[in-house]
Fold this sequence. Notes:
By secondary structure, this protein is mainly beta. The protein folds into two domains: about 1-140, YVTN repeat-like/Quinoprotein amine dehydrogenase (Methylamine Dehydrogenase, Chain H), CATH 2.130.10; about 145-435, 7 Propeller (Methylamine Dehydrogenase, Chain H), CATH 2.130.10. It is built from one helix and 42 strands. The protein has a four-stranded antiparallel sheet, with no helix packed on it. Strands 7-8-9-10 form a four-stranded antiparallel sheet, with no helix packed on it. The longest helix has 9 residues, at about 450-460.
Amino acid sequence: MRLWSIVTGECWQTLNHESWVWGIDVSPDGQTIAAGETDSRISLWDVTTGQCVQTLEGHGKGVRSVMFSRDGDRLVSGSGDQTVKLWHWQTGKCLKTITGHSNWIWSAALSADNHHVVSGGDDQIVKLWDLQTGQCLNTLTGYANVIRAIAFSGDDQFLATGNDDHTVRIWDVGQGKCPYTLTGHSNWIWSVAFHPFKPLLASGSADKTVKIWDITNRRCIKTLADHHQAVWTVAFSPDGQLCASGGYDGTVKLWDTETWSCVATLDHPRQVRSLAFSPDGTRLASSCSDNNVWLWDVDQQQVIHSLAGHTNAIIWSVAFSPDASLLASCGLDKTVRLWDVDSCYTLTVLDLSNSLFTVTFSPQGGRLVSAGADGTIDVWDIVTATCVQTLRGHSHHVRSLAFTTQGNQLASVSEDETIRLWDMATGECQKVMRCDRPYEGMDITGSTGLSEAQQTTLESLGAIN
């Protein structure tokens, strides 16, 4: 564990542990640091001397979360042993152990008045507890797996989604159902892209790989493993001859789609979040965590220009207009920027009230669509730079958008775990699709022995009552 000077940026203290540190918190007076460790202990450290002054033992598995009370007198911890513990840390005494979760607890936090604690974990629920009695006051349910990426097939008959459960799901748009699931990744999937002509799909994952899937045979035909960290984005060139992938290692890899060999590596100073080929395939735009959008000559594999203007380090999405004259970008600075591709100047800045995660042009080119943290989807007139339509229905962050080839429909995916299909003429939601939940279709009608909270949880995860 390292202590850093915010003024100089230098590390002035290193505290050595015997096991991994998963959670830390600093006492309100700044004199003590608590660390939750994989060996199930909590260690307390004196900031001035760098010495361990107390060790709390009692958890049965690794401690994922620790938090001091506002007065600094108590400490709450959450662990892989499925318990929350309240400690008087100076004496090392455990004041209370709270049980009720059915899997690892990843996070636990005390209320300002020290009367309540909230906890959440791998059982996909959040619980609110009364600290005095240890009773659960409320259970917040409905968490399953986040969908982070979406793409239409070339014929608009199918959708592909990338999910936090490490799967790629293929959806039949007409039926609104998922006929099959592609498995093979070992971590979250951040991006998916269909080949423009062949029945192939690329997926980029936090497991550091790009997988190429044969959609007809429903199998992975190639795993591209040249990235050293998570792969955030994948895209095919319009002629289908190249596949580009970008990631947390600050590189964009260009892959020959015949041999699947890496033919070029485009280096960036920081992480790459999004990629887009121009419609003619001559240029590639990449968003980088250095606040800039980078514009590349694909044939020469050289930087044409670095577009500066965003003020937050994360630019989540870039997209070319159908005629390749405009480039759009959006990010956590709550703006959409429209750039003239030839001059590389900013033409328009659209200011919004929430962070933005995705932007795309309509196939006809007259509209720009953006979405982000508030769950709404805004449709913009490019000429007047005004919002002409707002699509409402999602209850959480919207992560990705995709138009059909005709532009009459728009698909959106959200962290509310749903896919919505919108009629762009009316702005109406035509269809809501959802991944099967863990207990989808299980009939619990008349079941005995279940508490109200357990029934609510099962229903939120697909059970029928």
